[in-house]
């Protein structure tokens, strides 16, 4: 499947919106992947634009991974910090604010930003294992190719998380 530059730009926009809704870094690429996956399950437009497949650590989008590793557009919009944190830059904040300004009169856009904010406020606090635990419990089909689902869903781990 050939992906157009417009499609990559839209996906990059979702990354930038997710980064911009809170004034703090996203803890890891895994968090970004899983947060956008959860949002895609609640928002058909995101689901249509970002394809997630079963992978070693649950739902995974190759396109998102590539855009985080090597942003094609707005290369100065975010940085990868210590421990894999994804940090929006001042340039990224300007782009985020321009997007918000462009769509401020759209109620669905305001709802999307609210969903993104709530998702980040909830999931950013979780460790990677806690986040994967919730994903595997909620979306069981994504355990299929996982390298870690058995240990994360083990009885001992469930007791530890309870």
Provide tags for this entry:
2 strands; about 60% helix; mainly alpha; 9 helices; Antitoxin SocA-like Panacea domain-containing protein; two-stranded antiparallel ribbon; about 160 residues
List the SSEs and their pairings:
Elements: H1 5-20, H2 29-42, H3 44-49, H4 62-69, E1 78-80, E2 86-88, H5 90-103, H6 107-123, H7 128-138, H8 149-152, H9 155-161
Helix pairs in contact: 1-4, 1-5, 2-6, 2-7
Protein name: Antitoxin SocA-like Panacea domain-containing protein
**What distance lies between the first and last C-alpha atoms, to the nearest angstrom?**
43 Å
**What percentage of residues falls in helices of 4 or more residues?**
55-70%
Summarize the biggest pleated sheet.
Answer: 2 strands, antiparallel
Report the strand count: 2
Rg over alpha carbons: 16 Å
User: Structural class, please?
Assistant: mainly alpha
Shape: globular
The domain count comes to 1
Order of helices and strands: HHHHEEHHHHH
Q: Give the averaged pLDDT, no decimals.
A: 92
Q: Helical stretch count? A: 9
Strand content: under 5%
Main β-sheet, spatial strand arrangement:
1-2
**Poorly predicted runs:** none
Protein name: Antitoxin SocA-like Panacea domain-containing protein
Tell me what the structure shows.
The protein is mainly alpha-helical and 162 residues long. The protein has one domain. The protein has nine helices and two strands, in the order H-H-H-H-E-E-H-H-H-H-H. The chain has helices at 5-20, 29-42, 44-49, 62-69, 90-103, 107-123, 128-138, 149-152, 155-161, and strands at residues 78-80, 86-88. A two-stranded antiparallel sheet has the order 1-2. A hairpin with a 5-residue loop joins strand 1 (78-80) and strand 2 (86-88). Helix 1 (5-20) crosses helix 4 and helix 1 (5-20) packs across helix 5 (90-103). The N and C termini lie far apart (43 Å).
